[in-house]
Design brief:
The protein is mainly alpha-helical. The chain has three helices and no strands. α1 runs antiparallel to α2 and α2 packs antiparallel against α3. It is rod-shaped, with a radius of gyration of 31 Å.
Length: 166
């Protein structure tokens, strides 16, 4: 394969690779046959790398959605807590000092529980983000390794071609 020739990827690249193999085999041109094999392997490697990148992107999107869900839940809890505090204030105004103290204590307990729930949701979201980032990193490393393997295969094919020309 010449340095200027670009290898088509995806299903088209795979089909072109198979066609080159068949033509090379039919015409007895080993170079064309090997070129077709290489092109088909490169198309497979690229497809696998694309699949892994898409999976990592999906994980990242799931983590983002989970984080938004946790933030929405925390906001809802905050709004509910504020509504409960307003009710407690109105009740405290109608009752004696003892009733005011009881309402304040309930509000404090509810607020602490909502804060614990919010913090717990944020921790879960952060863990999912970290996990998605780790998986995305692994997918990128796998894709890079597959690219290196394809490059090594291409170099090996070029070496074989140059030896056969000599």
């Amino acid at each position: 394969m010449s340095e200027q020739e670009q290898v088509t990827g995806g299903p088209l690249g795979k089909a072109v690779g198979r066609a080159k193999q068949m033509v090379g085999a039919a015409l007895g041109r080993d170079e064309l046959h090997r070129e077709g094999q290489l092109q088909e392997v490169q198309a497979d490697v690229q497809a696998e790398a694309d699949e892994k990148a898409a999976a990592a992107a999906r994980k990242d999107e799931e983590a983002r959605i989970e984080a938004e869900r946790a933030e929405t839940e925390a906001e809802r809890s905050k709004v509910e807590l504020e509504a409960a505090e307003i009710e407690a204030e109105e009740q405290a105004e109608r009752k004696r000092a003892e009733a005011e103290q009881e309402a304040a204590e309930r509000a404090r307990v509810e607020k602490a529980a909502a804060e614990r729930e919010r913090l717990s949701g944020e921790q879960r979201s952060e863990e999912k983000r970290r996990q998605a980032a780790a998986e995305q990193g692994a997918a990128k490393r796998d894709a890079a390794e597959l690219q290196r393997e394809a490059a090594r295969a291409e170099e090996a094919a070029a070496t074989i071609e140059s030896k056969e020309k000599d």
